[in-house]
Amino acid sequence: MLKYAFIPLLPFTGFLIAGLFGKYLKEKAAYFPIAGVLGAFILSLFAFSDVISGVKLNENLYSWISIGTFSVNVGFQIDQLTAVMLLVVTTLSSLIHIYSVGYMHGDKGYPGSSPIWRFSRSSCSCWSWPIISWSCLWDGKGVGLCSYLLIGFWYEKKSAADAGVRPLS
Fold first, then answer.
1. Cα(74)–Cα(59) distance, integer angstroms
2. With 60 as the cut, is the pLDDT of residue 145 above it?
3. 167 upstream amide cis, omega within 30 of 0
4. CB neighbourhood size of 36 (10 A)
5. 110: closest CA among 121, 101, 120?
6. Cross-strand partners of 76
7. CA 82/CA 51 separation, integer angstroms
8. Which of 43, 114, 123, 125 makes an SS bond possible with 109, Cβ 3.0 to 4.6 Å?
9. What is the pLDDT of residues 8-32, one digit of tens each?
């Protein structure tokens, strides 16, 4: 069941490719985040199907701390609620990514770096949502960071750029 670890990793891969190589790939850079999110959606369908049929999805990825008999493992568990949340998140993320291609097409920066960063930031959000569904340790910090990045995407508009900067107080 280790394949379900790819649910957050596929969007993260799309985030990295679009973020690092988007300037060179131009319009084609949007395909990588879309493929990552669609792949996560397909894996979420399989996970949902497995959970509904009664398969226990509990995977330890590695041991974080191990002292004598005390051990803290890092892994994931997919129960019914998590499976539903994964389906909701990956379905909406897939639709948003596909819609964004058409929406961003007329943008003056497209196929420049600005819309590519928008796809990259969206993939970052799609990476953090499954993790928050699985873990109380993540505590929403990744989702918060990605939300601020998305809010401040329109950096040329002062009010949007200001909204993407969290006040220190």
1. 9
2. yes
3. no
4. 28
5. 101
6. 59
7. 10
8. 114
9. 889 888 888 887 887 787 777 788 8
